[in-house]
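Quick one: co-fold with fe (ii) ion.
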Amino acid sequence: MNRNVQSIIKGIKTSDGAGVNLTRIIGSPELNMLDPFLLLDEFGSEDPNDYIAGFPPHPHRGFETITYMLNGKFRHKDSAGNEGFLTDGSVQWMTAGKGVIHSEMPEQTDGLIKGFQLWLNLPKEKKMISPKYNDINADEIPIVNFKNGKIKIISGKHLGISGPGKPHTGMLYFDILLDIGSDLILPIENGWNGFIYVYSGSINILDKEINKNHLAVLTQEGELKLHSKEEDSRFILVAGEPLNEPVARGGPFVMNTKSEILQAFSDYEEGRFA
Ligand code: FE2
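Sure, here it is.
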């Protein structure tokens, strides 16, 4: 059995931070969440006006942010004194846990910035763990080459090779290049939710075609069979074990109940975040 396409989604143009123009693909009216994924943003522009304002200090609680830079440079700082630098091809895996206040600012004044930020929910018992950072350099991300393409393994395992990302629940994150006219079959755990997002070219799954800048939500059972028909194509494949827990959202906080959200706001306002 093969995984099929449940729906195809095109994100919405929006702006966040101090005025960064981006496309929100998950966490939008069309796709509020795909358990355990709460949000997927794509940022991509050569115009500094779209990104220069950055994301000045703001809080998070209750989940992880995974920022994958395809191109560009971002400086990360938090109120506890942690600092990180993201460059082309690197990943920052931040476990917000019980709370961080951080800034994410571009460290370039011209040129291309392109990448993704994914929010991965934490299970109920781990929402209030201590914050943690995993800064992953581009050369620490293993690449599996195959006949007609390659897979960068940010998290999860393929052909015995594991990525450096350390999720708290089952999850995979691959960045895949598939040459024109090629097929690729990938196993995904049955029961996991998953999606592909195409950022160059187009990909066929069974009889469905997913064009550039579109996300395909996958059905939950079977292998994933991909075909790149018209050109060399690039896309991310992300899948994870659903938590099946109640989700309460309040801006940058994601908890299980509304009272935990109110608690997060008062903890933040009264300076109880690190
Ligand atoms: Fe943030």
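If it helps, Residues 55, 58, 60, 65, 102, 104 surround fe (ii) ion (CB under 6 Å).
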